[in-house]
Amino acid sequence: MTARRRPPGAAGRADAKAAVERRIFVLDTNVLMHDPTAIFRFEEHDVYIPMTVLEELDAGKKGLSEAARNVRQVSRFLDELMRGATKSQIDRGLALQADAPVNHGKRPPAGRLFFQTALLESALPESLPGHGADNAILANTLALQQKFRTARVTLVSKDINLRIKAAIVGVHAEDYSSDQTIEDADLLSSGAHELPADFWETHGRGMESWQHHSRTYYRVRGPLVKDWRSNEFVYDSGPDGLEAIVRRIEGDAAILELTVDYRTERNGVWGVAARNREQNLALNLLMDPEIDFVTVLGPAGTGKTLLTLAAGLAQTLDHNRFGEIIMSRVTIPLGEDIGFLPGTEEEKMEPWMGALMDNLEVLTQSQSGGSWGRAATNDLLRHRIKIRSLNFMRGRTFLNRFIIVDEAQNLTPKQMKALVTRAGPGTKMVCLGNIAQIDTPYLTETTSGLTYVVNRFNGWAHGGHITLMRGERSRLADFASETL
Asked: 3-state class of 258 per DSSP?
């Protein structure tokens, strides 16, 4: 590795961008285990992999876990980059632009990949005893800082404790953020926009309205249209205000369709009526045959599972739109793991499906026929609702199914992609979750697979999203959510 020196007087030139200081990113093992394409995500900067990281990757390549699969993919990427390279070429760095995967809007990689090819003199302080892998990575990073004083060396790790140790010994460390779909979870779309008080004055001129199949449509033009996306909701917060869904954008005009009011008993879904605006908008997405993919976010008690299950039962048993309901979730325990469970796949999943059973009990309470009638209804529902494990989804194709993925915030973007691509013709998929309650290690609100699909599907003509705000479980649950 040879340092690229900054030409004199470059700061005052018009092409100052070309004279930006050189940056070297040292990757920790957990970054590559989290995102196997991480080596291609640093644009024009150089990437350095210590020998300790290669040793840890080799130790973690066995098994069927997501981390083990990612390690094997990293090894394949490195093998492709090193194919045919000589020792001198490896010492000078391998060009990263070759065979780089899709970079999702970021600039393609233009830097070089360096490996630790020689023993670097350790510069760790005596206050860090031991010879652990983290200390070896810190020692390599410190040695690089001393060797390339004109470059900015940064350690990239998802291990918070390693970043703390790095800061203590004078190493600049950062979290890996290239997999973030958005900068801040607060920027995630809620799926609904409140109309300003002067909306009709600014957008009412030249408005067209018509009816088709008992549904009312409007074509509006104005400055707000450019900020709208397909299948987002707009509403007037007045007592009898407008609630509509943006069906499509046509240049500078938007086609709005009035929503169905599911807050009335007449429009109830499997005996369930919406209790607030967001629940009503969610039922509009869940009951719409033109929408194939729905994401529903919200804290505990907002009705995500109940509304989705009611919509699935209505469309499966009443309308015969789907053959059956498939429900699944990530099996991450809240406390200590209870160990292996006996029985079939469905029997193993039942302890994780308490939310399904609780909501089925609510939905069958209104059924007539006494206890015998409710038992017969429960038996019928159990035959039409299948519980499946996410571990066995790969390679499957679901036809005419209503798929519910609960606790989807614990899925990685790669797992979410593998799951959504299982949907065949006539299938509708609904992903539920609360990104404030993530239990998967190394996943955050901005890197969760649920956040990923909400952002990627935003504006798609056959996808919709809504965030539920208000809890409707009980006054005890509402008070606990606000105060605890």
From this structure: strand
20-174 matches 268-483 in fold: yes
The answer to whether 74 and 60 have CB atoms below 8 angstroms apart is no
Does residue 192 register a pLDDT over 90?
yes
Within 8 A by CB and 6+ apart from 114, the residues are: 1, 24, 46, 47, 48, 49, 93, 94
Taking only the tens place, the pLDDT of each residue in 119-152 is 777 667 766 665 688 888 998 999 998 888 889 9
Distance between CA atoms of residues 224 and 428, nearest Å: 30
Tokens of 267: 């429009």
Class of domain 20-174 as given by CATH: alpha beta
> CATH top-level class for 268-483?
alpha beta
Single-letter amino acid, residue 145: Q
479 versus 468: which is more confidently predicted? 468
Domain boundaries, the chain: 20-174, 268-483
- Predicted confidence (pLDDT) per residue in 253-283, tens digit: 999 999 999 999 888 898 899 999 999 999 9
Using alpha carbons, list the distances in angstroms from residue 188 to 259, 328, 446, 458.
23, 25, 9, 10
- Whether the pLDDT of residue 335 is over 80: the answer is no
Is the distance from CB of 286 to CB of 311 less than 8 angstroms?
A: yes
Q: Residue 390, Cβ neighbours under 10 Å: how many?
A: 18
For residue 350, pLDDT beyond 50: yes
Q: Is 460 exposed, middle or buried (0-12, 13-18, 19+ CB in 10 A)?
A: middle
Angle (CA) 315-346-420 rounded to 5° is: 55
Cα angle for residues 88, 91, 93 (degrees, 5° grid): 110
- Return the minimum-mean-pLDDT range out of 123-132, 381-390, 438-447: 123-132
Burial of 450 (0-12, 13-18, 19+ CB in 10 A): buried
Measure CA 112 to chain center: 30
* pLDDT at residue 103 is higher than 60: no
Output the pTM of the full model.
0.77
